[in-house]
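re: the backbone from monday

yeah here it is again, tokenized this time
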């Protein structure tokens, strides 16, 4: 063995120790994803606390707001937050950010978006559901059956939730023969986990119309011409009987122009 043999063996061992196969590949991180806001409906012109649930948000460092001049967003916190009841994280998220949001009074529905920023990049934009000029009504529980409906004056926009598993929300609407009612649920398209089903009954509890979706969209839109004067009952529930404080929806009832 030459006098260089031992140092060469040592050198090879050192090179082997530093070989790339011994290095752990960097952990692949997903960019953040925003799913839905709690509360689901945001009020322009007011400073409000909003939590936004999603995926990979625990390490988010910033949330940006676009689509409204003068909109302000303050990043308060980010945390891991498992969905309740072992519900799927794909729909309910595994983490959330807490924000203080102030949108200008003239913010336009459909145009205001949030983007979360984290170590692995930016989320896709999330479109906030905003109040518009429609009369706002807060949902009043209990409203769980035909015997205890919440009376609505049309037109209105009810800010409601499927508050727990098997929650049913029943609303009463007075109508005249020949009136057309348009009933729309806004939920899934704004990321809400609510998969809504709407049924309109007449006063004898016969079904007038029902909807569980609208063309190309999971949120129901129901249009019905009323067959007689009287009280009508509208039920809203989750197709899978799931529910909880994250299950927000907005119910918009109007009489469209003929
Ligand atoms: Ca409810
Ligand atoms: Ca209810």
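seq for it, each position gets an aa:
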């Amino acid at each position: 063995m030459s006098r260089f043999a031992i140092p060469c063996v040592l050198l090879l061992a050192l090179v082997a120790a530093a070989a790339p196969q011994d290095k752990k590949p960097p952990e692949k991180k997903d960019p953040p994803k925003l799913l839905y806001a709690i509360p689901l409906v945001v009020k322009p012109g007011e400073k409000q606390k909003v939590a936004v649930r999603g995926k990979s948000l625990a390490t988010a460092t910033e949330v940006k707001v676009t689509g409204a001049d003068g909109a302000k967003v303050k990043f308060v916190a980010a945390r891991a937050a498992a969905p309740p009841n072992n519900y799927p994280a794909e729909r309910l998220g595994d983490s959330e950010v807490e924000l203080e949001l102030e949108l200008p009074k003239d913010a336009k529905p459909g145009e205001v978006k949030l983007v979360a920023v984290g170590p692995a990049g930016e989320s896709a934009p999330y479109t906030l559901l905003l109040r518009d000029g429609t009369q706002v009504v807060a949902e009043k529980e209990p409203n769980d059956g035909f015997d205890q409906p919440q009376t609505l004056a049309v037109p209105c926009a009810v800010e409601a939730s499927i508050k727990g598993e098997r929650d049913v929300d029943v609303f009463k609407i007075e109508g005249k023969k020949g009136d057309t009612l348009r009933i729309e649920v806004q939920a899934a398209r704004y990321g809400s986990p609510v998969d809504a089903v709407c049924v309109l009954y007449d006063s004898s509890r016969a079904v007038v119309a029902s909807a569980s979706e609208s063309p190309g969209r999971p949120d129901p839109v129901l249009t019905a011409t009323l067959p007689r004067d009287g009280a009508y009952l509208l039920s809203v529930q989750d197709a899978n009987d799931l529910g909880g404080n994250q299950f927000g929806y907005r119910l918009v009832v109007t009489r469209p122009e003929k």
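The first helix runs from residue 5 to 17. DSSP finds two helices and 20 strands in the chain.
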